[in-house]
Design brief:
Blueprint lengths: L2 H12 L12 H5 L3 E7 L8 H8 L2 H4 L2 E7 L3 H9 L5 E4 L1 H9 L4 E5 L8 E5 L13 E4 L5 H12 L8 E4 L3 H9 L5 E4 L1 H10 L2 E6 H4 L7 E5 H4 L2 H23 L1 H11 L5 H14 L10 H13 L9 H4 L3 H10 L3
Parallel strand pairs: 1-2, 1-3, 6-7, 6-8
Antiparallel strand pairs: 3-10, 4-10, 5-8, 5-9
Helix pairs in contact: 3-12, 3-13, 9-14, 12-13, 12-17, 13-14
């Protein structure tokens, strides 16, 4: 057993979470076929995935009878379409995409979140200027149409009374690719997470002009989203419950043991310096962004819907009961307790 595995197990005992990383399964359970869950991820591996990566890295899901199959696509809209088409069971996407889908008649629900609060930052090339006003009419790199990386810059500029109608968006892909596009002068600015923004600042080619939380402190970041039909399926419900339970354990571990969590992320992103990752995880821990109790927050979703409608990003406000189901989270918390 590695030192990291030992610490993860000790954390579980200390917090009465019962991770059970080294708990032997019974002969009966060992003979059972594992449940399978198709997880659709809208971007390459990055910091917000830590509450999932920790239990996945240590084999927690498999030890609890769940195999997680990862599929990576470009952007929130594509991720949700993949789930609605039946090619995935669960995705983790921004609330604006979920709201638009619900308004359009999609039967989907948010069931939890690894990171309910946004940590995005607007960064711009040093040549652009040091003020948000300098972004009027500029070109942004984004992950795709209706994605948060497209909509949030508009919302931030509008909040500051800056005309956002002239912004142009070019689909570039994941966070590192968008940063590279700014550094290479292909676009003027972009919206990226804390990890990528800190890296860009250290490179010396971009500057952070605004943190989204400065303007929208309760703005939602990502939600685990599934189809209503799958929530009504007993086998898939059980898979969702195990999955979210593992997420909660992973979120708590990331909050309490940032350096060990950073090491897990570094395994998936070997090109990133471990010292950089540790700095970023510590900063995110300080912001308390993780879904340590499942992450489904009615106040966050309500606020996000209200602001998005107020700024004309969605056609109407979406009510919480239209978009959120707490039943999976309630079952997971029954198993691990509330923090």
């Amino acid at each position: 057993m590695t030192e990291f595995s030992r610490r993860l197990r000790l954390l579980a005992v200390a917090s009465s979470v019962a991770l059970g990383l080294a708990v032997a399964t019974s002969p009966a359970s060992a003979q059972q076929q594992p449940m399978k869950l198709k997880l659709v991820l809208p971007t390459a591996v990055t910091s917000f995935m830590l509450p999932y990566l920790v239990p996945q890295d240590q084999g927690w899901y498999k030890q609890h009878g769940l195999e997680v199959e990862e599929t990576f696509v470009a952007g929130d809209s594509t991720a949700l379409r993949t789930v609605i088409a039946g090619n995935g069971d669960l995705t983790i996407i921004g609330p604006l995409t979920v709201f638009e889908a619900v308004i359009g008649g999609a039967k989907v629900k948010c069931i939890g979140s690894w990171q309910p609060i946004v940590d995005y930052r607007i960064v711009a090339a040093n040549s652009v200027g040091a003020s948000l006003k300098d972004l009027a009419g500029k070109t942004f790199a984004s992950a795709g149409p209706s994605d948060m990386t497209t909509e949030l810059p508009k919302m931030v500029l509008s909040k500051h009374g800056i005309d956002a109608s002239g912004l142009r968006f070019i689909q570039v892909g994941g966070h590192p690719a968008r940063l590279q596009a700014v550094e290479a002068g292909k676009v003027d600015a972009t919206l990226i997470n804390t990890l990528t923004a800190v890296k860009g600042e250290l490179d010396g080619k971009v500057r952070v002009l605004e943190k989204v939380t400065d303007d929208f402190p309760s703005f939602g970041y990502v939600s685990l989203t599934a189809q209503d039909a799958d929530l009504a399926n007993p086998e898939k419900r059980k898979a969702f419950e195990i999955f979210l339970e593992g997420n909660i354990i992973g979120a708590r571990f990331t909050q309490e043991h940032p350096d060990e969590a950073a090491a897990v992320l570094q395994k998936r992103t070997p090109d990133l310096d471990l010292a950089l990752i540790k700095r970023v995880v510590a900063e995110l821990d300080g912001m308390k962004v993780w879904g340590v109790n499942g992450g489904n927050d009615a106040n966050v979703l309500e606020f996000t819907s209200h602001v998005a409608h107020e700024l004309k990003m969605i056609d109407r406000e979406v009510k919480v009961d239209e978009v959120m189901s707490n039943s999976i989270q309630d079952q997971a918390l029954a198993a691990v307790g509330r923090m």
